[in-house]
Amino acid sequence: MLSIRNLHVKLEDEDKQILKGVDLDVDAGKVHAIMGPNGSGKSTLSYVLSGRDGYEVTDGTATLEGADLLDMEPEERAAAGLFLAFQYPVEIPGVGNMTFLRTAVNAQRKARGQDELSAGDFLKVVRAKAKDLKIDADMLKRPVNVGFSGGEKKRNEILQMAMLEPRLCILDETDSGLDVDAMKLVAAGVNALRDEGRGFLVITHYQRLLDHIRPDVVHVMADGRIAKTGGPELALEVETNGYGDILAEVA
Amino acid sequence: MAAPAMKVADDRLATLPDPQGQGWLVDARRDALDRLRAVGLPGRRDEYWRYTDPRPFTAPEPRVDGRPDDDVDLDLGDAFLIEVGPHGIAWDTGAVPEGLEIDTLSRAGEIDIHWARDLYGTLEAAGSRPVSRPLGMLTTAAATDGVLLRAFGVVDRRVHVTYAPQADAVLHHVVRVEADAAVTIVETGNPGARHDTAWECDVADAGALHHVRIQGRTPGCHANTHVFARLGAGSILRSFTLSAGGDLTRNEATIDVTGDDASATIGGAAFGEGAFHHDDTVFVTHGALNGESRQVFKKVLRSGATGVFQGKILVKEGAQKTDGYQISQSLLLDDDAVFLAKPELEIYADDVACSHGSTTGAIDETALFYLRSRGVPHDQAVTLLVLSFLAEAVDEIEDEALRAAVTDLMAEWLRG
Asked: Would A81 be classed as within a structural domain?
């Protein structure tokens, strides 16, 4: 589904290479976790895949179901089925959460040549999904992420994911800033979306999120490359021994 | 130094007929004309006209053709409609809301005893000290008509003042809110391709006046407006203006807080591009205890548009515990737009809290990416962020339904 080959990326404004040849395949129905120390390039990978400005691809390819992601605008990538759950969801004062969600859902439907959802239909769907994530009517009404707690912001990300029904979900350190209860709620939301047609790329520092979102494949990233790939046991090994031992062993 | 200004002044002043006849209105007009002749019409060298060229307002003839054609589709529920046109002012005389008295300047001016007599031109004259408001004087001297509104109770229907546009209009409205009375006035559209329109508002003790103005979208429009207000003890004034068009707009508000514990909020949201030049000039004077005032202005500018904000808070000696707040912000959508801000505080009391701030910025790239990453196309995402930026000014509208209606209208206009 997602296929990354030899991806090299540098910062646009300075001569700093961040990704130095990433190779990665994520299959439909699978959850892939990417772990790695700070500065290894995990978040950069998520931004480059979703089309954020400030990065320059110097070599390599990234495709989603055969379509060249790197050639698309961010909104086109979204319409093609890519979703990034932000590490730091952005606050947008003055724009109601519901308005935002509906704008996004209908923009994607329009881009895919589908009819827009009516206000009534949309409301029905969003209410049901919000309930599962314990998002109340007030949170839907308030401006996007404004005054939300850390946990509320992350639940709101998952709600967007649930509404947009992407093919490939990237979760960028979704566990950061969450207490155990909030993490369980978020993980339950993600697990509910697990489906044989959908792939996941879960970026995290820590094993603990992976106790709740069980990965099929675990990658360890270091210095801009995938240094090691294994099963769920690799995450446990990181937890026990730290990155140092694993990376030393690869080197 | 004043020579060029005087020459311009003579031009438009020369086109003004001398007030004819007898009665209080003629006296008031003569007085204003004398005052206007004494100071002259504004010129580029006047301190508060450095950022905005007054000549389109001071030229004898309008520099814009035609008449504005504004379609302001604001959902106001069952507002009471007053239509101001070139041939008079009309409303449903059988359905005037309770607590409200309506008249017109042209009619009242012929009556010896009228409540507007003690007010007409007086707040405008007071508002010309210390800074002259010659275009305000011009409305007092030369207004062809105006709506006279007196609220003597809590008026539970919104009053909607709308315009059948003229080529060149001069209007002077007068509002008197009696003690404990309250009224909401919604003003939509432009009265002329060029116009000079004043609102003189006297809010008595514990009265409340809400004014929401939606200026039309006709591009070729030269609008100069004034609000002159006096606030009694415990009274409230809220005036908000949405501007989304017009080549040249100057909105002045001159607010005199004379009673203790009074509160004034002047706000505005404006967006435009190209020839759009939008100027908010506000002067709030605190002369009483525990006064509160807010000035909240936001402008979104693109491709050559210019925004101006000149805001002053004057706290007189003895006006202790005054809380004055002022913020002016601009969002520049490209490198060709300009925002000029001149905030001023002048404080002669020692126990006050006054603050002002002004910012100029571009679209937040992180927020833009966030929206686009959800599938919202670039232009639509920019529109959402523009709405987000303007929302803080619109929030100053207290009436929740009205605020929602203005927000909806703004969203529709932004989507173009």
From this structure: yes
Q: Using the beta-carbon criterion (under 8 Å), do A94 and B380 form an inter-chain contact? A: no
CATH of the domain at A226: 3.40.50.300
Six token digits for residue B314:
């004057």
How many beta-carbon contacts under 8 Å exist across A and B? 81
Alpha helices in A133-179 (DSSP H): 137-141, 150-164
Structural domain boundaries enclosing A185: 2-93+166-250
**Contact: A104, B365; criterion CB under 8 Å:** no
| CA neighbours closer than 13 Å in the CB half-sphere of residue B217 | 13
Q: How far is A42 from chain B (nearest CA, A)?
A: 18
| Residues in contact with A60: Cβ distance below 8 Å, sequence separation at least 6, in sequence order | A4, A5, A6, A7, A8, A21, A22
Which residues of chain B lie closer than 8 angstroms to A53, CB-CB?
Answer: 365, 369
Do B286 and B318 meet the contact criterion of CB atoms below 8 Å apart?
A: no
- In chain B, where the domains are located: 3-362
Alpha carbon of B334: minimum distance to chain A alpha carbons (Å): 17
Nearest-angstrom CA–CA distance, B51 and B341: 9
Per-residue pLDDT tens digits for B153-181:
999 999 999 999 899 999 999 999 999 99
Alpha carbon of A90: minimum distance to chain B alpha carbons (Å) = 6
Tell me if A108 is assigned to some domain: no
Provide the pLDDT for residue B3.
42
For residue B375, the chain A residues in CB contact (below 8 A) are: 75, 78-79, 104-105, 107-108, 111, 164
With respect to residue A67, please indicate whether it lies within any of the assigned structural domains. yes
Q: Taking CB atoms and an 8 Å limit, are A90 and B366 in contact across chains?
A: yes
Q: For chain A, how far is it from start to end, CA to CA, in angstroms?
A: 30
Q: How far apart are CA B204 and CA B217, in angstroms?
A: 34
Overall number of domains in chain A: 1
Nearest partner of A108 among A157, A68, A158, A164, judged by Cα: A164
Tell me if B323 sits within 8 A of B295, measured CB to CB: no
Each residue of A197-237: pLDDT tens digit? 999 999 998 888 999 999 999 999 999 999 999 999 999 99
